[in-house]
Amino acid sequence: MAEYQQVTVAEVVQETADAVSVVFDADFDYRPGQFLTLRCGPVARCYSMSSSPHVDDRPQVTIKRIPDGYGSAWVCDNVRAGTVLDILPPAGIFTPSSLDDNLLLFAGGSGITPVISIIKSALSQGGGRVVLVYANRDESSVIFASELRALADKHPDRFMVIHWLESLQGLPTPRHLTALRPFTGFQSFLCGPAPFMDVVSQALRSMGVPRDRIHVERFISLSGNPFEETVEEPADGDEATVEVELDDEQHTFQWPRNKKLLDLLLENGIKAPYSCREGACSACACRIEQGEVKMLQNEILDQEDLDDGIVLACQSLPVTDEVKITYS
Q1: Please, which residues bridge with residue 191 across strands?
Q2: Are 150 and 173 in contact (CB under 8 A)?
Q3: Measuring CA to CA, which of 112, 123, 161, 252 is 20 to 30 A from 53?
Q4: Which residues form the 2Fe-2S ferredoxin-type domain (predicted)?
């Protein structure tokens, strides 16, 4: 069972007809673009933080009600000021390495949630330009419309918002997005429905944007519950050796063949990042520098990630006798 904390809800803000922001009466460290895992009744769900650690006094997540979505409906129907929720620590790697970078941001619908956290942080603490392309069904479904307008008015030389409304313009295509060619030297961040992100990724690659400048956030509903007890299978005697670099420190362990890498690290007191523990988020992503592993499940990494050596620690087992891993 993952370690979690209980937080009290300070207020619930109705952002649109089907989206709310849940503001916590709490104080914890997080980075722009990260997410929280919440216990939503009998299930767990990951929701991005729409607050900025550099601007906002209280952390918050923003949740859009999804048709047939149990977690989002549970929050919208049950959470009020004073509700106490169980949360896992902030997690995720959808965050700029430098807030001074020039940023080209794409959001579709509720995908604006981690993106606005990045926007507010970059405009407050950084010095680069920020361009946002925000796609929605119609004007009434635009989350944070007034806040985005205020930020554009406050930072006219640094922040530009391009709204794309399906009701007026139809669905965006890669050809439409080639108008953004002047900004393809920026770091690109994408969050939204899968078809939207596929179109954006295709457009960026057609314009020659390198893979390492395209950052994608995807969420898939968890089938398990990291808040509940799990029973681990006993490890057999066959072991590999793993070297791990995390937070500029080197660690070496004997790695049983049927023990997941994340479990091994946590058992040895290493504070490796994680959230869902079932391969449905990227919080535990790390890179293979030497050797080979196999993943039991992967719902989040694409083939280019795999080709770059990125794996999920919560699903990785050793294949070769020696493996080197880095989290840098």
Answers
A1: 107, 217
A2: no
A3: 161
A4: 240-328
Distance CA 185, CA 182 (A): 8
Query: Would you state the structure tokens that stand for residue 134, as one six-digit string?
Result: 């925000």
Question: Contacts from 226-231 at CB under 8 Å and sequence distance 24+?
Answer: 226/1, 226/2, 226/37, 226/44, 226/88, 226/275, 226/276, 226/277, 226/278, 227/1, 227/2, 227/4, 227/39, 227/44, 227/86, 227/88, 228/1, 229/1, 230/1, 230/277
Q: Which two tokens stand for residue 318?
A: 């050793």
Domains of the chain, each with CATH number or no CATH: 5-87 (2.40.30.10), 103-217 (3.40.50.80), 239-326 (3.10.20.30)
The answer to whether 95 and 191 have CB atoms below 8 angstroms apart is: no
Q: How far apart are CA 158 and CA 151, in angstroms?
A: 10
β pairing state of 316-318 and 249-256: unpaired
Rounded to whole angstroms, the Cα distance separating 35 from 117 reads: 10
Write out 246-278 in H/E/C secondary structure.
ECCEEEEEEEECCCCHHHHHHHCCCCCCCCCCC
Tokens (6 digits) for 155: 């930072």
Residue type, 258: N
Report how far residue 7's alpha carbon sits from residue 87's, in angstroms, rounded to the nearest whole number: 7
The SS3 call for residue 31 is coil
Rounded CA-CA distance 157/160 in Å is 8
pLDDT at 282: 81
Distance CA(20)–CA(310), nearest Å, equals 34
**What is the amino acid identity at position 269?**
G
Q: Please report which confidence band the pLDDT of residue 222 belongs to, taking 50, 70 and 90 as the band edges.
A: confident
Res 236: pLDDT: 54
Q: Residue 326 pairs with which residues in a beta bridge?
A: 245, 287
pTM beyond 0.85: the answer is no
Torsion of CA 199, 315, 97, 121, to 10 degrees: 80
**Mean pLDDT, rounded, for 37-61:** 95
- Token pair for residue 50? 């729409």
Contact between residue 177 and residue 188 where contact means Cβ atoms under 8 Å apart = no
Locate 232 and state its tokens: 């681990």
